Structure formats: structure tokens, C-alpha cells
Amino acid sequence: MRRIAMMPLCIPLRLPSIINSLVALGHINIKESPGMCFQMQPRRKESLKLASDQLLMPIVKSEALPPPEVEQDEAAIAAAAAAIKEPERILKGVQRVGPLAKGLLLRGDRDVELVVSCSVKPTVTLLSQIYQMLPEKLAEFAPKKFDLEMTHDCIYVVRPEEPKVRVAVCLTSPLMREANTPEEQKEALDNDPTDLLDRHKCLQALAAVRHAKWFQAKASGLHSCVIVIRIFREMQTRSAIWSALSPWALELLVEKCIESGGPSMSPGDGFRRVLEAVASGLLYEEMSGLFDPCEKDATDALAGLTTQQREDITYDAQHCLRLIAFRQVYRVLNIDQLPAVNRYPSRKRRLSSDNTNGSASVDGKKDKKEDDGSATEAFASANLTNTFVVAS
User: Around Cβ 360, how many Cβ atoms within 10 Å?
Assistant: First the structure.
């Protein structure tokens, strides 16, 4: 049987539109430089690791090995040492959270966050112990001096030199989520230490860790997601309407819109798609809401918005779409307007390089006009003479 060769489908490529060019230009203006991002990488994680080792030392020393006075063979000593299990660390891990962990830093951002996960419920006593150990441990990695500040729920490590970076170190533990029912919460309060850290702050830190892991797994792989989120974060800094939307809700909204539009969506099309979704009334209470994938129970990420805030954000998104339709994207992005390009330049007649020839041609035209005028006058006078002759 004879086979017929099929010609491949030729899909025409779309030329980059004006909105893509302006979105790329606006992103360049707000993006943090790679060198500054490298300088903001905190070395406090290694310092906290040393602090965790130091917290282990008193526990290890308290373990009872066989006394040296008792004569034992080497096998018995090795068996006794192997029987002693390594004690569980109090500080189990350190995780970057917030814009630094997600790659969403804007130009001028100098605040980063670290979350320390503990094997026990964090207390003010544990926080003060870490606060006392950090200056010595920081000096081992960075010879520069850092300023430390301690509040009732976290520790701030401030770099006094430029760029001035402020790192917030928060403590949390998965044990803070175990008490769900009111009876369990009451029982936990009876057994908890008196100087326990704020439970709400610890739960927020746990949620920030889950958000960072979800973003790295889902949103970082999309081509335009990070760019569009940066642009909306910049809009939140200069607009009180968009600032009502929480950072986590904004990240979920942009990721869902771009993921549903296809993996090859350009930043300009992704930006317009998010505005179209918001302008259609997605934030209204009558809609299905925005599901939070990082919570066990069904949770709406937009639950913190009031009715007036939802209406204001929807109206502003509609206004932005009108500006985009009338080619005024620069007003939405708060950038300078691109210079206008004349697509149809006016055609001018070329002038002769020889000025003499040019002047001679002009004089020739003038002489021709004068000759035409004299001939017309002679013809008119001849007709007038004939008229007088006939009349006489």
C-alpha cells in the first residue's frame, strides 16, 4: 500500500506585542540584581547549626559512661558507648521563607526570614539561649560585626554596613499543631511550660515553611509566574487597593491563572490573564474562592478580604484592562512611555547636488512663466483690436 507523505503543520509565530515589551521593561526596573541577592544569602544557618551542637553538649556530658576506675576490656567499653544513643537535637533544621526563598525579591528589599524548627515546643528560655550563643558563632563565619535584637517572639540579626540586611530568626515546632479540639488545647495548656512562645506566631512560621516548599515545587517551574508575581508585588507597594491582597493569596492566584493558560505563556499575556480573571469577579464572595493547598482542611486563601476590598480590587483590575486596551500599559506599570515610532515616514523630493544647475532650472521655470504671461497679453490685445475694427 502506497503511503502519502504528510506535510507538517506550519504554525505562524506571533510577533512580540507591545505589552510584552513593556512588561519586560518594567520587570527589569524592579528586579533585584543577582549580586545583591548573593550578598543577602544569610550565613546564619551555619551559626545556628553550631548553636544546635552547643545545646547538645550538656546532654552528652550527662550520659553515664562506665567509670574509668573500673577495669573493663575494650570490647565492653565499645559496647557501652554504642548502647548510648545520640540525643535528639533541639534545633532540627533551618528553612528560608518569604521572598528570598521563592526568588521574588524586589529592588530595595532588605528584610529576609529564617524559621528554625525545634523538636520541643519553643520557649522564651530557649530563645534567649540562642540569642546569647549567636554572637560567638557568627564571628566564626563572618569577621564583620552584626547587631542583634531580641523581641518576645524572634531574634533580629542586622548588618550595619551597606547593604543593610535584616534577618528575622523565628522558632517553631510541629508540636504546636497537635491540639485541635478545645479539650486537647486545654490539656496542652496545662502541660506546657509557662514561658511558651506565642502559638499564633509559631503556626504562621509553620505555614511559611509549607508555602516556600509548595512554591519551589509548583510555581518556580512556570516560565512567567515569577515575573508576573514580582510585577504585582511592585503594584502592591504603590497601591493601597492591591496591598489588601495577602502575598500568599497573590502567589496562588497568579500560579493558577498561568498554569491554566499553558506552559508557554509570555509574561505580558500572563499579566493580562490575571487581570482578566480578577476583573471577571473571581474575588467575590459568591464565587468558589481560592483553595489553599497547604492546609489539611478546606481553607479559602481570600477569607481575610472584606466585601469592599474585593470590589475595589475588581474595579481596579477592570480599569487596568481598559488602559491596556488603549495602549497605555505604561500607566499600569508606572514606567515611562516608549517613544512613538513613525511607521509611514514622509517622502521628500531629492534636491540636486549642483546648486548651479538647480538655480538655472528655477530661472528657466520663471522665464517660462513670464513668456506664457506675455503671450497671453498679446493674444488679448489682438482680440480687442479686431473687436474695435468690426464695430467701426
Answer: 11
